[in-house]
Design brief:
Layout (H helix, E strand, L loop, with lengths): L1 H13 L8 H14 L12 H8 L3 H14 L2 E4 L3 E4 L3 E4 L6 H6 L5 E12 L2 H7 L6 E11 L2 E11 L13 H7 L6 E10 L2 H6 L7 E10 L5 E10 L3 E4 L6
Parallel strand pairs: 3-10
Antiparallel strand pairs: 1-2, 4-5, 5-6, 6-9, 7-8, 8-9
The structure holds 2-amino-2-deoxy-6-O-phosphono-alpha-D-glucopyranose.
The site of 2-amino-2-deoxy-6-O-phosphono-alpha-D-glucopyranose (GLP) has 14 residues, from helix 5, strand 6, helix 7, strand 8 and strand 9.
């Protein structure tokens, strides 16, 4: 692992196309890449700060700075006295507006979706309130189970104004990638989370027992001009996902 990381760091240092002059950012990217390529697996320990600084010829302050950023992102975890590990549970910082696909890829996992529904129809009263749409307007609906490799992690139901996404079949695995093509990826979102017990059907789809703990999440995503571009309701498995929020005093 140490070799793979050192090699990746050196490769990035030579690479003129993606040249990153700041060593701690280069190291951060190298660590991210080795996690993504599964040169280091979830749960495994990262080489110590001292070893990394020796092998890479960097100061310990630089190494620490690189690592602390990845701890904040949730990619690494630190246990006092035990070192730094690649996070096992999927730790999702709540302050960053990322997609399911990006969160999983960052951990070297392959995300995919299985759809129950991709359709266009008239907005329901609830959807019209959530999306600020007038009755009679059309929306695209996506209903799917989200997987990491073959492991189901979440059930999601997304509603997007059809004026933004006229054909929901354009969404293959990632909604945000499809929205990006139309320059309509949300730039801000409001999210509500609450703990739930998963019902029998949800539990079956998520391969857990009925009554297991889950997280119910609602997200309204906004464009720069304030238009609501998505209303997504999700049920996440409680045994795999951690949502982490950073709190600051004013
Ligand atoms: C998360 C959010 C959803 C959002 C989705 C987009 O799962 N809870 O609100 O729609 O990410 O992810 P992707 O682009 O992978 O479909």
């Amino acid at each position: 692992m140490q070799n793979a990381l050192a090699e990746e760091y050196r490769r990035l240092s030579r690479d003129t196309t993606t040249h990153q002059p700041l060593a701690y950012l280069r190291l951060r990217r190298a660590i991210r890449n080795v996690i993504q390529h599964r040169d280091i697996e979830p749960g495994q320990t990262l080489p110590s700060e001292r070893d990394l600084s020796q092998v890479l010829g960097l100061s310990r302050v630089t190494v620490r700075k690189a690592i602390s950023g990845l701890v904040e992102e949730g990619l690494l975890t630190q246990r006092h006295g035990a070192g730094t590990f690649v996070a096992e549970r999927i730790i999702k910082p709540m302050s960053r507006l990322t997609s399911f696909t990006e969160d999983l890829r960052a951990r070297g996992l392959h995300p995919r979706s299985e759809f129950f529904e991709r359709s266009v129809g008239e907005v329901t009263p609830e959807e019209s309130m959530a999306l600020n749409l007038s009755p009679g307007m059309l929306v695209a609906r996506l209903h799917r189970v989200r997987y990491a490799e073959d492991e189901p992690l979440a059930i999601e139901r997304s509603v997007v104004p059809a004026s933004v996404l006229p054909d929901p079949h354009e969404v293959h695995d990632s909604l945000y990638e499809a929205l990006e093509k139309y320059n309509c990826r949300p730039v801000r979102a409001l999210q509500r989370l609450r703990a739930v017990l998963l019902g029998a059907r949800q539990a079956r789809l998520l391969h857990v027992s009925a009554g297991s703990a889950g997280l119910h999440i609602e997200r309204r995503g906004f464009l720069d001009d304030g238009r609501v571009v998505e209303f997504t309701t999700s049920w996440y498995r409680g045994d795999i996902y951690d949502f982490v929020a950073e709190l600051q005093t004013d």
